Amino acid sequence: MKSESEILDKIRKLLRLADRSRGATENEAKVALTKAQELMTRHNIDSALLRMERGESGGGSFKVDKGNLDLPKTLNPADLMILSLLQAHFNVKTILMSGGRGTAVDIIGAPGDIDFAIYAFNYLRQTFFRCWNEFKRTHPNPDKASYYRGLRDGLNAELKAAKERTEQSYAADQRQAYGLVVVDQEAAITRYVADHYGKLRNRNQRRRNLHSGSYAAGETKGRTIQINRPLPS
């Protein structure tokens, strides 16, 4: 099994492939994040199974740490959409901190998951902005919040499918064992949050009507992320 540092290095390389400012094509940008997420899922499963083979409990050997993102004081509609994707798919808890000149976001999870989540956030933020700028230039009266929500939902579906494909590549008993480890890891994160933050207040997002055309375009764009190529060696 490759070391965690080797896995994270490969993930960073995949994310750099998605950087269009470095000359990546649209297709390369589409596949890179999902490839990286699939690799991280496989790494998490392999690590969890190895710990169980050694007789280590998921919660007892699961190290919880804290990372940080610094965002503007007034959040872009894309920011909350992307943070919800991190919590849904990257094994972390995100906590918005009040006060200060900007908005600090604490990211709670395993060190490797935190590292990956921060890279994924920065990549997705750049991608959301680029997709929106391309869309608004060619469509009359577009709605930014609706487009970002659609983009989030489309990406969410693709990332969920990628994770399920990865998990299904393991035997049933391995998936069951990994499921128990995930429960332990989530409990460890919950304990860390309770110990360091106390009772958290949920951030209520303002309910608003969706602009159906902008939402549908965003969801369609989000679903263009496909997994068509093997991981680079």
Which SSEs are present, and which pair or pack?
Blueprint: H1 4-17, H2 26-53, E1 65-72, H3 77-89, E2 93-97, E3 102-109, H4 111-136, H5 144-168, H6 172-197, H7 212-222
Antiparallel strand pairs: 1-3, 2-3
Helix pairs in contact: 1-2, 1-4, 2-5, 2-6, 3-4, 3-5, 5-7
Instruction: Assess the beta-strand content as a share of residues.
Output: 5-15%
Tell me the distance between the termini.
14 Å
Q: Find the count of extended strands (DSSP E, 2+ residues).
A: 3
Number of helices: 7
Mean pLDDT: 80
* Residue runs with pLDDT of under 50 for 5 or more positions: 225-233
The ordered H/E elements are HHEHEEHHHH
| Biggest β-sheet description | 3 strands, antiparallel
Largest sheet, spatial ordering of strands: 1-3-2
Tally of domains: 1
Tertiary shape: globular
Q: Structural class from helices and strands?
A: mainly alpha
Measured as a percent range, the helix fraction is 55-70%
Radius of gyration using CA atoms only: 18 Å
Report on the structure:
With 233 residues, this protein is mostly helical. The protein has one domain. Helix content is 61%, strand content 9%. The protein has 7 helices and 3 strands; from the N terminus they run ααβαββαααα. It has helices at residues 4-17, 26-53, 77-89, 111-136, 144-168, 172-197, 212-222, and strands spanning 65-72, 93-97, 102-109. Strand 2 (93-97) and strand 3 form a beta hairpin.
